[in-house]
Design a protein that fits this description.
By secondary structure, this protein is mainly alpha-helical. It has 2 helices and no strands.
Amino acid sequence: MFGAVAFTYGLLMTFVMSGVSRNARLCRPNPMMLSAIGYLLVGLTGGASLVLFGYAGWTYLGGAV
């Protein structure tokens, strides 16, 4: 299950980043939907990293038995 989610996330992130870089190269503004999905993906990535970092610190300090 995790593999399918990671694959979908990777495809979506690749699509968004390639679209943004293409628009920057052509000096065009990004569509609102592309910007919204980009911000969503960045937020999900940051949130997941904070949760995993917190869990790692919690288990390091002996929180999990």
